[in-house]
């Protein structure tokens, strides 16, 4: 049996003996003398540059933005501080922001997902990046703190994935936080934390919720997970899915993608849900429905105790709160690392449960994700940053906003040429009948 917690969405380069040192203990500099960064090994930059160039081929919208911006530089003078996964795909986004005029400082939102060679390539390109694969919790917060650089920098914009950067700035550097022009957040976890700030009156700047944009929900959360879940499971476990019984906890867009992929390979899929609408969707789509769960401690020690020998447990949520890991770190259970990001948790009678990525995001910790799908999300984030930076005073208050549908549709249109797809156009009579402009937006703001 395979258990997935879906609540809502590889290291590259050779290693050397000097990589056994903590990056904080190394004195590194780029070929141009930059030392304001902290990565695993700056010597991997050339390899990382190749990875970024490969990703660019599948991320057409960002490349179009660079070309169209030309001399305009819509982010000229902007100081963007970011905390996202640091992969070849996000590197294309970061370098696009720099090409549009922004100064960028970056940290990783996940301790396992950073591609070390890519981080080195970003540093070589004079992006101050603080991240490496396999950070400790202490390293994680140190990197975010260094990324903010409170003594020398006043960020204008935050691009966050999970809300950790926003949380740290709000709590530790309120004088910097209140002067931010805006926050762009792309994850369910981060959006939840933003609404908590808003309810307690601590959100003192505008925030753009791009996780609930149509392009993010319908492409990244669905199609990215649909393909990458299989890749992550196969790379780590060599499992065959035909005939396996799989429990997917949560039938949002991420869960739907995972279910479709697994069912397509012959697995018997069961769903757990709390939302009656999602539950009804699962039933109509002929998925077997079990009792519902929420997004914290979805899988508890009670569930682990009832699992069969060899059961695989993984997570497609942003952090690892979906799995009650503390209940597994007890004296009677033995942990055995059998592969990178693959642990066997062994019960006294010999039963083994396979835990992947210590309960963290499977696809980005254990495999790679499709560049073309992330191109959609990354372009959405870039446009949101441009909108917040250039918006006239008063357009956005201290609140949380959805990306305007016109921008959603623009992002989608930038990707159509890659597939040799061409839009038809409404006639004047048709546009009048629908009560919309023939050039869009075609969906109302409340559409998701």
TrEMBL record:
Keywords: NAD, One-carbon metabolism, Signal. PROSITE patterns: ADOHCYASE_1 (PS00738), ADOHCYASE_2 (PS00739). Substrate binds at residues 87, 161, 186, 216, 220. One of its GO terms (cellular component) is cytosol. Residues 1-16 form the signal peptide. Pfam families: AdoHcyase, AdoHcyase_NAD. The keyword NAD applies. NAD(+) binds at residues 252-257, 273, 363. Belongs to the adenosylhomocysteinase family. The gene is LOC107388935. Its cofactor is NAD(+). PANTHER family: ADENOSYLHOMOCYSTEINASE, ADENOSYLHOMOCYSTEINASE 3. GO terms for biological process: one-carbon metabolic process; S-adenosylmethionine cycle. InterPro entries: Adenosylhomocyst_ase-like_sf (IPR042172), Adenosylhomocysteinase-like (IPR000043), Ado_hCys_hydrolase_NAD-bd (IPR015878), NAD(P)-bd_dom_sf (IPR036291), S-Ado-L-homoCys_hydrolase_CS (IPR020082). Residues 221-369 form the S-adenosyl-L-homocysteine hydrolase NAD binding domain. This is S-adenosyl-L-homocysteine hydrolase NAD binding domain-containing protein. It comes from the Eukaryota. Binds 1 NAD(+) per subunit.
